[in-house]
Predict the structure.
Amino acid sequence: MPLLSTTSAALPPPSTSRKGVSVRAVVLGAFLTPLNAFWVIRMEEVMLGPFPSLLSIFANCIFLLCILLAVNHPLHRFAPRFAFSQGELLTLYTMLAISTGMAGQSGLNIVCGMIGHGAWFAPSHGDWGGFLNAFPDWLVIRDREILRGHFLGNSTLYRGDILRAWMVPVLAWSLLFNLILLVGYSINVLVRRQWADHEHLTFPVIWLPLEMTQEGKGTAFFQNRWMWAGFIIAGGLNLWNGFAFLYPSIPSLPIGIIDLKPMFTTKPWNAIDWTPMTLYPLAIGLSYLLPLDLLFSCWFFYLFWKGQRIFVSMMAWDTTPDMPFIPEQGFGCVVGLLLYYLWSGRQHYAAIGRSVVRAFRKTESSQENEKGANEGISERT
């Protein structure tokens, strides 16, 4: 699998008019964070779609950023003193993006299942009993009466006994989740210089908010005719299909998932399994942000995977379960990428290791000198 491209244009110069992480930006972000989390949970867990947290660029954050820019534009014109700078807007965007990742799929919503599912489903599903016994009492809820309202409804969270039962597990899991985030951010700090300064990786998901908020160019972004042409085409297609869903008399446009598998019914071609063909404007737009070699790897290795399945069926090797082991190949690619990046950045990571050793030795030497000084004082005393 080809590696990510290591060539990119220089990032636009940051704004120097005002500090990015300001008190008012953090306060506004703290106010918008729970509202944004509620919105994401409502979309993904209650309405079962759309799922913005599964995309590389969170659509809800871009939408909220557009609202902030709409409010900021008249401020720039009539009250520039109170207008938000690019750094402040990016601070708000970052806080909203973090809250989206935590509230969305594969985020903190999994913790709710970890806390209550074991006790509730153990009587009807024996495997959940073993799952429940694997956790201490302060990480799960074992009282089914406490969980009744959670699973059956017609109740409220705001009762003393329910709040007390949920408080300790929620705080414990939240602490674990925050420690995991801290480890992830610490790893980002360690690899940032190697990836950004030495390998010049592009980080394409940051370009859209950067271009939208860059002072002097942000207006140019919204005045770009090609941007609006793409926006109108993509939005028009989705709007048309939305009306077609509400009013079945309107014919829908075939831009959804079309499975090619039913077209291949004979061996070995039927081994392609599920093969979707789509025309998603969102995916097309995201592809413009990716390096060409990465785009090439996406479609080439997808076809190569399908070719493996057809070849295995042709050779009658599909009698072996799970042949040709596509998930295992994917895991091997991930391990290979990890080893490659460790090897390519070996000098940088070795320098980090040496700096840690020097800091440890310096601390140890300072402690010995302090101990010796204290011992000298005690002897003179």
Summary: Confidence is low (pLDDT under 50) at residues 1-17, 375-381. DSSP finds 14 helices and two strands in the chain. The longest strand covers residues 258-259.
